[in-house]
Amino acid sequence: MFPIDIWLAYTIASVLIVLAPGPDIVLSIARGLSQGRLAATVSGMGAGTGILIHSLAATFGLALLIQTSAAAFLALKLAGAAYLVWLGAKALFSRNLVSFAPTARRPLHAIYLAGLMSNVLNPKIGLFVLAFIPQFVSADRGPVNTQMLTYGAWLAIIAAIGLSLIGGFASVLSRWLLSRPRAVAGINIGAGITFVMTGLSAAAMTHG
Fold it and tell me: How far is CA 116 from the centre of its chain?
């Protein structure tokens, strides 16, 4: 059902996708810089859970409904765009997405939820999963639903591990950044711009 050559090709493509700049990486790096490796890992797990939810939705037809229904697509698109723009505005104005002040530390459940929601509410992820995973699926190799769910779960695992490692490596920089407030401010501005641009891009997506 899962030929090794196709599995390896899918794995390599998935790694490259996870490494592409986007909100998930920004969140993991921010949490790694602010609160260390555990927080980065929790953020990565939230993002991975979001991918798994999109994979389930794609498998059972919700993503197809979103793709074919203008109302459903618009609702998810605007919700996701609003959330991403809100995250970006918060980072730009409060400058505390990355912060070393004790009061800026967030509980782990909130970090997980932020990673989850930034992914679940991004319509690009759902449509991407719907377009990406089927490229490696064939009805000749067994039940399509089983293949979709397996590939989706593997992508979620790769995302969780990859984002956790990236955020963990970022945590090494925290001591260096602690004495450089301008660098921290620059990171917050860059993160804020990334979220706002991603949100506006999601809002500008057209249906169909």
Answer: 7
Model confidence at 152, pLDDT cuts 50, 70, 90, reads very high
pLDDT in tens, 31-41: 888 888 899 99
Using a cut of 0.85, tell me whether the model's pTM lies above it. no
| Radius of gyration for the chain, computed over Cα atoms and rounded to the nearest angstrom | 18
User: DSSP character for 72?
Assistant: H
DSSP secondary structure string for all residues of 123-142: HHHHHHHHHHGGGG--GGGS
- Residue 97 tokens, joined: 């997405």
Give the single-character DSSP code of 103.
G
The residues, ordered by sequence, that sit 6+ positions from 156 with a Cβ below 8 Å of its Cβ are 48, 49, 51, 52, 55
82-111 pLDDT per residue, tens: 877 887 887 788 766 666 554 457 889 999
Q: How far is CA 115 from CA 70, 142, 184, 206, in A?
A: 26, 33, 21, 25
Which residues have a Cβ under 8 Å from the Cβ of 13 and sit 6 or more positions away?
132
What three-state secondary structure class fits 180? coil
Residue ranges of the alpha helices (H) in the chain?
A: 4-19, 23-35, 37-60, 62-68, 70-94, 108-120, 123-132, 144-171, 174-178, 181-204
Angle 133-139-145 (CA atoms, 0-180°, nearest 5)?
55
Q: What is the residue whose two structure tokens read 């979620």?
A: 156
Q: How far is CA 10 from CA 13, 74, 129, 151, in A?
A: 5, 30, 12, 8
